[in-house]
Amino acid sequence: MSTPPVALPPSAHARSSRKPAGSSIAYGVVGVVGELLITLGVLLLGFLVWQLWWTDVEGNAVQAEIVRELGFETPAAAETDDGVAEPRRDEPPVIDEPPHATTFATLQVPRWVGEQERPVSQGTDRPTVLDVLGIGHYEGTAMPGGVGNFALAGHRVTFGKPFNRIEELQVGDPLVVRTADTWYVYRVTSMEVVMPADVRVIAPVPNEPGVEPTERYITLTTCHPMFSARERYVVHGVLDYWAPVSDGTPAELLG
Predict the structure, then answer these.
(1) Which is the catalytic residue, given 118, 137, 155, 156?
(2) Which residues does the annotated region (Disordered) include (predicted)?
(3) Which end of the chain has fewer beta carbons closer than 10 Å to its terminal beta carbon, N or C?
(4) Is residue 126 among the annotated active site residues?
């Protein structure tokens, strides 16, 4: 014979089937937190897409338009003969340092096959130059072709990333700078990785602060490693030759 179940008083039965009020609140809080985390994840993903992809799309288009607006067309005289500018190694013309955020030159790097011509503008702050105009010129450093250090900065990722492929450069590679009337062809001489505070790399004589320059240098600086601002990747070069734009195009750009 089975033993009949013990009957609970009505009040006891109600207490056993009712969830504690604290548990309901906890479940609700967990649900809200979960939804917030999902929303935060979606927003973060959207920000990353904007930062790592869309700023490049927009930056490349804007920088290409800036170059077009410079009006650096090759004069018809340069199209005579074979179109190759004759290298000159005498005293080059040097333009005056322009006002902040003024675009005054372009940079082309033959090693970076497929990369567009990039504008070079005065200043290196992010809001008015690097994020919106492309490559920035350290104010107070030499101008293209000038004795001293023509020092430049550019993003390695985002906003068109003009220096994204900087680690591909090799000693001897040409770096071709153009102003309205003049080509300046520099050659890479060295690379190094430094800390952000090592401003010696943009001294008039790179890495030798206080020394009077006698040569015409170029320095490119960008963040290192990729997707980090912990260090700086730096490329140094010296002027090989210059040529008037009216004489043609540097052979390094003609393949």
Answers:
(1) 155
(2) 77-99
(3) N
(4) no
> What total number of domains does the chain contain?
1
* Domain assignment present for 24: no
Report the alpha-carbon distance of residue 103 to residue 161 in Å, rounded: 17
Structure confidence by residue, pLDDT tens digits, 163-206: 999 999 999 999 999 999 999 999 999 999 999 999 999 999 99
CATH number reported for the structural domain that contains residue 201 in this entry: 2.40.260.10
CA 230 – CA 224 distance, rounded (Å): 6
What would the two tokens of residue 186 be? 């520099």
Query: Is residue 176 included in any domain, yes or no?
Result: yes
Question: Which residues on adjacent β-strands are paired with residue 101?
Answer: none
Task: Report the alpha-carbon distance of residue 159 to residue 54 in Å, rounded.
Answer: 8
Q: Residue 155 catalytic?
A: yes
Q: Is residue 22 a part of any domain in this protein?
A: no
Cα–Cα distance for residue pair 178/82, rounded to 1 Å:
20
Burial of 250 (0-12, 13-18, 19+ CB in 10 A): buried
Question: How many residues would you count in the chain?
Answer: 255
* 49: in domain: no
Name the active-site residue from 156, 224, 232, 236: 232
Specify whether 165 is catalytic.
Answer: no
Model confidence pTM above 0.90: no
Q: Residue 180 belongs to what domain range?
A: 57-253
Secondary structure of 112-155 as H, E, C letters: CCCCCCEEEEECCCHHHHHCCCCEEECCCCCCCCCCEEEEEECC
**67 is written with which tokens?**
């170059």
- Calculate the alpha carbon distances from 231 to 14, 62, 178, 190, 191 in Å: 67, 28, 29, 17, 13
